[in-house]
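Page 42, continued from yesterday. The earlier attempt failed because a stray header line got pasted into the input along with the sequence. Redoing it now with the clean sequence only.
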Amino acid sequence: MEQGTTEERYTRLVMLLVILAVFLVLPLRIIGYGYMPIDDALRHSAFAMGNRSWGDLILLDPRFPAWMDVHPGWHVFLRAVHDLTQWDQGTLVTLSVVMAFWVFTFTGVIASSNAPAWILGCTLVALLEPGLLGKLLLGRPLFFSMTAVMALLFLWTRPRPLRLPHEIGVVALVLGVSLYMHPSSWYLWLIALPPLVACRCWRAIGTLAAGWGIALAATCLLNGWYNAIVLPIDVLRLALLEGGAPVPLLATELQPTGAPMLGLMGMAVTLIARRAAGHDVRHAVQAVDFAFVVTAWIAGLYVGRFWVEWGLPAMAVWFTRQLAESLEIGFVGGTLQRRTAGMVGISAVVLYLSQSADLGGRYSNTLRNPLMTAPVSEFVSDLPDPGGILYSPDMGTFYTIFHRIPTLQFRFSTAMEPGLMPAADLKVLRAIQSSNLSMVREYQPWFDKMTMADRVMIRSATEPEWPGLVFKRFYGAWIGHKAKP
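This time it went through. Structure tokens are written below.
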């Protein structure tokens, strides 16, 4: 008997170590390909390298103060890491990617209270909906919101709820971290109300309201009320309503999802299999995590971020709970434990191999971008002079160049959100995007106000021609400046 108990104890330990090892190693393997995100993580890391404001780096609409910051908490964190470690911007990007993956997966291990079921749930969602892990690998602070969704759904579906003061404290802590690091999510939590009401989770509604109020008050104290409340609303309004961009030109997360069905089909198959096995599935479709998935799927038909950032974490919770119940997965004894160990082993191998494979160069594409790999000394002289402006319709130009040269002394016309641009420059950008990026005549308003310190970048197969401007080849584009008189 003692030998069996010892064997079970070691089996549980090995299972836990395998689960933790996969979650630990997987992002490191991906980083090992030379992987770097292509957008916001680059500018977050560069912004953390100094103490300048966005008004010093980009052209801002006068309605926005120069000191505004959509992610002040995240930048405070990255600056603190930089000051403590002296890591460069590339290492800070690596930290962002790895941290996003670890925070989400390791929090799931704790919040689920069932690590074997959690890794099976993550594997299933990763295979059905690659957007979940893909979003984490972007290294954006939105991973705090995704983690908060997952953690609170596990909290609200516990068989035995926490004591009310403890539950309010947990909700306030989880939301406090999320809102501090990712303030734009403060109003998005309204999406939790329909599923909570539909499932009559009145206690959860109360704890959510109390925790949300505490978290928002703390965020206002730390980030300032403007950055915490007003700015996220203004940026969303400009992006969706006043930016003038057709849907295909909106940021990916603001575009509709197009009704993805594979994940929902996987949930349907799970319910059918459970019903065929004699289980009562009514509680599975009446639970708040199921309702949350459905609500986010519907909301994603209008704005895709609801599905990827809110629906998919909820789906991971739902699959984890269904697998734990139907397969009796967990740290249990006897034959069940050996069966669980086998499923954990298979899941760990599938998750690691499927997500770490560099299919189509999805992780090594950065190494093929010469602007990300060429020595800065080769192209810095082609960029604007100190005090100048780089006019470009391409946000990728901003992300890449700012990341490579965080100490640059010029500004960008187009940066992370076109809605932040002055109205006249936004009008030029939309004209360029609506016609053709290589239609030189649409750039004329920028040409007319360029000074000798400014530069303009145009992506075109042939060299652009414009009176008074001189162009030269620049890493797949053309960069131009005023001709000397």
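Notes: The longest strand covers residues 469-474.
Reminder to self: strip header lines before submitting.
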